[in-house]
Amino acid sequence: MSYQLYRNTTIGNTLQESLDELIQYGQITPALAVKVLLQFDKSINQALSNRVKSRLTFKAGKLNTYRFCDNVWTFMLNDVEFREVQEVAKVDKVKIVACDGKNVEDRR
Amino acid sequence: MTSQVSVLKLYNTVVDDVISGVRDCFLDDGVDEQVLQELKQLWKTKLQASGAMDPPQPEPTMPPPPVLQNFQKANGNNVLPKRTIDSHMAQGSSQQNTGMEHGPPAPNLAGTHPHHVLDPSNKVPVQLTLPAQPGVPGSQPRSFTIQIPASALNGNKLHQVLTGPIINATISLPQPLAATLLQQHINSALAGQQNEFDGGGGRSGAAPFSLDGALDSSDDDGSNVGDGSDDGAGDDDEDEESAEERAEEEEEERDESGGAEEEPLNSGDDVSDEEPGDMFDTDNVVVCQYDKITRSRNKWKFYLKDGIMNLAGKDYVFQKANGDAEW
């Protein structure tokens, strides 16, 4: 239904930390935490595809590493410049993890 | 880039959506609504604390070095590292300098500077010399002074802390940077390993080459911790060695080198590909989906969508991101 890869972001990680705390204090069960995470997957996938409108371009000095495994691309890019209209952000290196965007309906 | 305000708005939407989406699950499990609210509060607090949605700073602010705190904790009192050499330190400093570079057994020091040993929290200035960079023309050995707690003079703590990798990391830096980096490294290492060192287990992290560098002709004292040439990394544990052996080795050293010869390379000299600065880099990560990835020869094009990026600690989101790179 929805990709789980967004769990590994700021908003996903902070949710997982919060759930861990509640589990440790015995306030929720791990099984309930799993349900929350599944709901998170649904919500974040929907929010990104429906609510986000920004488009940007980027240019990398170098594609350092690429990997394609289980339909997931992973790239390590060096000297990357992200550009949205006239705003620019530059980083020395960035890691991109990308799931197949055409496949969303088939996902469990 | 996408303003942090819209990221914040998006995240708030997701939080609310998740919380209301699992309300029934909580009810089914017989978990109080109060806990659900607590989850929401925890999550939002952590999100705020991450700083990922803060408006970008006009210039990146360096976090204050954590070293002072470490120091205070490790020493159990509030003595701050002194930045200047105070008088009684200065008068004994030449002895101390050579002492530290060669890591003499503790009794030596105790004899000459009982004061420092009695108060292990005292900071002692120690002069270090980084050797000239091999293969860099015009490179000079550089000296600077760092502060270490007197307690670290006992045993060879400094040598255990100043291992090959950290020396290699600093060797190419400008002097002030190198001094700062070394100081921080020493501070945190000593703070973290205080107990471990006191336990006295033999450690193999010994400095693989002499800290005082090729041009230092001093051969003033007993220990030969720096002579990594023949007995390699383990040679910090030489306390058991007889004085004779030690003297012999020292003689060998003098004979073969005259002080000017480079020691053979060993694994301690490995230089990693990473720049020293990279050790402290934030990870920049983009999590997204791909519409299409194309490649012709070494030219790659990326067509990405629905992404969350964390660049230099800040979050950005995009609907589409197209980019290119050469491999």
From TrEMBL, chain A:
Residue intervals of the Transcription initiation factor IIA gamma subunit N-terminal domain: 2-48
GO cellular component terms given for this protein: transcription factor TFIIA complex
Pfam family, one: TFIIA_gamma_N
GO BP term, example: transcription initiation at RNA polymerase II promoter
Principal localisation: nucleus
Keyword list, A-Z: Nucleus, Transcription, Transcription regulation
Organism superkingdom: Eukaryota
Subcellular location as annotated: Nucleus
Domain Transcription initiation factor IIA gamma subunit C-terminal per the UniProt entry, residue ranges: 61-101
Protein function: TFIIA is a component of the transcription machinery of RNA polymerase II and plays an important role in transcriptional activation.
Family: Belongs to the TFIIA subunit 2 family.
Name of this protein: Transcription initiation factor IIA subunit 2
Organism: Mythimna separata
From TrEMBL, chain B:
Pfam families: TFIIA
Family indicated by similarity: Belongs to the TFIIA subunit 1 family.
GO cellular component: transcription factor TFIIA complex
UniProt xrefs under InterPro entries: TFIIA_asu/bsu (IPR004855), TFIIA_b-brl (IPR009088)
Segments of this protein annotated with the region Disordered: 89-122, 193-282
Subcellular localization: Nucleus
Ranges of biased composition (kind: Acidic residues): 217-281
One annotated GO biological process: transcription initiation at RNA polymerase II promoter
Keyword terms of this UniProt record: Nucleus, Transcription, Transcription regulation
Name this protein carries in UniProt: Transcription initiation factor IIA subunit 1
Biased composition (Polar residues): 90-99
PANTHER family: TRANSCRIPTION INITIATION FACTOR IIA SUBUNIT 1
